[in-house]
Backbone:
């Protein structure tokens, strides 16, 4: 995929949160590992990397299936609840930070009259809490969360719901930016005009290149340079 785009070709840009625009990714593996350990399951770093970018429920389901074969829905929900509680406590202790260049990129896009959507696998309650921590409560034109769509990534639902809310009907005029293979696969499923991988999060250049994409850049702060 190599269809170069200018900002003039676009109506909106959809951004992932953790690892793409916000530095909170290091807390997620710790909370997951602790939640699983309470059930007697020790997760490896490789297992954690393999599910990054998926919706949190799907990530937990996939990991449990690998270890237990056929987990109950009650166990999936229990670990998910424990994971969110641990994450919330970690947010109280750890600082959530902006990815360098993220705020400047958002300002640049707004100056070009492009719509901005934020997507996350987190439930809205937690997404709003994270955004409030960094003063981003009103940064985007819409926020679509994991509990507001039928399927999380790599399904395209988060992107498609963002388009619906902002009345953007042509996917070729949408850019999607993320740090995981699931982000890029979701962008391909949504048939966006520009799928961008960034190297500030969970997956490496080699991993992202295995997925359909138009562009892989060091970080979100490099996007204006490309679109110019």
Residues:
């Amino acid at each position: 995929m190599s269809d170069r785009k200018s900002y003039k070709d676009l109506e909106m840009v959809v951004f992932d949160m953790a690892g793409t625009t916000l530095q909170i990714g290091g807390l997620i593996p710790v909370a997951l590992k602790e939640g699983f350990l309470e059930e007697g399951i020790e997760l490896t770093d490789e297992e954690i990397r393999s599910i990054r970018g998926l919706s949190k429920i799907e990530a937990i389901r996939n990991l449990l299936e690998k270890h237990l074969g056929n987990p109950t829905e009650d166990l999936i929900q229990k670990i998910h609840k424990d994971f969110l509680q641990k994450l919330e406590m970690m947010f109280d202790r750890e600082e959530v930070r902006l990815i360098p260049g993220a705020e400047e990129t958002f300002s640049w896009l707004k100056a070009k009259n492009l719509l901005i959507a934020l997507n996350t696998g987190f439930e809205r309650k937690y997404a709003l809490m994270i955004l409030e921590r960094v003063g981003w409560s009103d940064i985007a034109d819409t926020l679509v969360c994991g509990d507001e769509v039928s399927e999380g990534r790599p399904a395209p639902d988060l992107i498609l719901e963002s388009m619906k809310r902002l009345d953007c009907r042509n996917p070729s005029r949408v850019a999607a930016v993320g740090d995981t293979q699931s982000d890029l696969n979701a962008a391909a499923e949504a048939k966006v005009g520009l799928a961008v991988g960034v190297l500030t999060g969970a997956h490496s250049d080699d991993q992202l290149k295995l997925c359909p994409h138009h562009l892989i850049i060091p970080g979100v702060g490099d996007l204006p340079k490309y679109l110019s």
